[in-house]
Design brief:
three-stranded mixed beta sheet, two-stranded antiparallel ribbon, elongated
Length: 168
């Protein structure tokens, strides 16, 4: 009679240890690439939003998006910013669905991008006399100051080089 060949306990332990070592090497590499992808997406989204703000301002009598009905004396609102980004507008900044007669500007983007670091797409709008906060706190996706046409990511933390996401 022949005995069936089986793995010994030592062989099984060696395989388990080797798999553990491989997992310890691969998992941080995957996490690092995920973080890198989020940082790249953040930079691209900020570039998109900043271009939208500049183009919008150029096409709307030097008034940045965020002011309701394009009235620079009004208090800027998140809804006005989103509408002016995602809907058609006329020269004065009033919005309407795309294709509406007389509203031949925009839409500039299809929807507000989500901040890839904190998962939020909301916008904190700063009034004309307000300053940017000292740091991002992840309470919104973005922070915008229409008076200066600036937009920043509302993200805490830094990248691998020590640069704050807030300063991207």
């Amino acid at each position: 009679m022949r005995r069936a060949r089986a793995f010994t306990l030592i062989e099984i332990l060696v395989v388990v240890v080797l798999l553990g070592i491989l997992a310890a090497i691969v998992i941080p590499a995957i996490a690092s690439s995920s973080t890198s992808a989020k940082q790249s997406a953040l930079a691209v989204d900020l570039q998109l939003l900043r271009r939208f703000v500049l183009i919008y301002k150029y096409q709307h009598l030097e008034v940045s998006p965020g002011y309701p009905n394009g009235q620079a004396t009004a208090t800027p609102t998140e809804q006005a910013f989103i509408d002016q980004a995602t809907m058609a507008s006329n020269n004065s900044g009033r919005t309407a669905p795309a294709g509406t007669v007389g509203f031949n500007r925009g839409p500039y983007i299809s929807k507000m991008p989500v901040n890839p670091l904190n998962g939020r797409s909301t916008i904190q709008m700063l009034g004309d006399g307000e300053n940017f906060p000292a740091n991002g706190d992840d309470s919104h996706g973005w922070i915008c100051k229409p008076a200066t046409s600036e937009i920043r990511a509302d993200s805490a933390g830094t990248n691998g080089n020590g640069k704050r996401y807030y300063d991207y």
